[in-house]
Write a structure and sequence with these properties.
This protein has four helices and ten strands, in the order ββββββααβββααβ. It is of the alpha+beta class. The strands form two sheets. A seven-stranded antiparallel β-sheet has the order 6-5-4-3-2-8-7, with helices on one face. A hairpin with a 2-residue loop joins strand 7 and strand 8. Helix 1 runs parallel beside helix 3 and helix 1 packs antiparallel against helix 4. The N and C termini lie close together (9 Å). InterPro entries: DUF2884 (IPR021307). It comes from Rheinheimera lutimaris. It holds the Pfam family DUF2884. This is DUF2884 family protein.
Amino acid sequence: MAFAHGILIAPEHIRIMQNNRTHVQINADSQLFIRGEWTTLNAEDTALLQRYSQGLRKFVPEIVSIAVDGVELGLSGIEAMFTGIGSEAQQAEWRELVNETTFQWMSRFVRTNEHFYLAPQSLNELDYFLHGELKPQLDNLARHTVGAVWGALRDALRHSDNNFERTDNQEWQSVGALVNKINSGLDAKAVELEEKSALFCQRMQALDKIELQLHQRVPALLRYDVVAQKD
């Protein structure tokens, strides 16, 4: 199962989007706008639209939250390691790396207060996002930033009265421990997704049936097949 269009969930409306443009908007779960034009609905059509809208409201935020929590978990662990360590220039460089990674992933999953955005993708792609893309990216980011943090800390301590030294082996053991902690948290999110995958598929199949009925009653929606079954 897959979402063929981007979906933005807000308290007052739902937007179905393509290339950052809104093509369909549902206001208050009962008013339908297609390409900016209000579509008149009878009582049965409105009831069907409400079922469809409420289904998206229950489902999309849950998917987005699993992905966003995974990203925040990994990045917060990295950021905590370099807070207050190194020069201002080094901290700016590390934060830029974290922000770049955050922006890259948050273009696909956005959660801001009561607003949720899910980019077009399938449930399999979400699983790959957690396993195949996010974990390697965070692993590389952790090794780059945390390794630099330990280097800055080691240099500072070398010039202190204690003349403290850390070996490379000790340094990378510390980095490895953080990476393992981050991966453990991401694995928990992946397990959560796997445990819910059957339920998610059932919900999407139910939404697909409602959407099909809605398309039959409002033909102008046919070109916006949001919930789709992948071959």
